[in-house]
Amino acid sequence: MSASAVIGYAVCFLSALSSGMGAGGGGLLTMWLSSFSGVSQLQSQGINLISFLSSSFPASFINVKRFKPDMRLISFLTFAGASGCVTGALAASFADPLILRKCFGAFLLLVGMYSLYKTLKTYSV
Amino acid sequence: MLINFFMNGRRKDEITLALCGIAALFAGMINGFIGTGGGVIMLFLLRRICKKDEKQAFASVALTVLPMAVISAAVYFINDHTLLFSALPYIPFALAGGALGAYLLGKIKVRYVSLLFSALSVFAGTAALLG
What we know:
The complex is a heterodimer.
Chain A: H1 3-20, H2 28-36, H3 41-67, H4 71-94, H5 97-123
Chain B: H1 2-6, H2 14-34, H3 38-48, H4 54-79, H5 83-87, H6 91-104, H7 111-130
Helix pairs in contact in B: 2-3, 2-4, 3-4
């Protein structure tokens, strides 16, 4: 097993750990795979999605039991979100990989900055 | 009637619901396009537009994003049949990390984890934009 693969698994574990705690870090596996493992941007995103599914599946059931969310509102949001997903994923499969990477980077930067600001503001670190 | 059903029978502003729907559609598009990000947009939306408290919003996001990720992954898989094989080795690590994260939620201080991953996201985002 190569060192790159081991680091990839570690990034996957840590990213899932952080996501499970609601602390973000969702796109880091994509970034690692596309930048250091020679995986294409589109396939990295797909691997990240499947990894996210595996990590959030148990957490979702734990959260439903804990907080009892509004299932009717969720069903509406899920329907709207799912429609958008099909459009977005189809657009990604036709998009230029470089444009896809830039969009991914811009989004990660924005979310990271917002999250950093929010964390610093909330905890006054 | 349909709106009342979705809003749990309570009288709420229909514009708010429409905005929530549009924002969820947008969150789905982003999630499908870049393979991440649906959750953070949905969390923002539920807190700001639907006025859900933080724990309720977090639980709702966890549930909403799950089918969104399934659909996005399915479309990715249709376009690239090797995807599942490539993703297979990562699944045990993701499962273990996610379960441990959910277990640790509320037991340890999230602030430093959040700070670390936010800083990493800024770094990774900048690298992707410039690289």
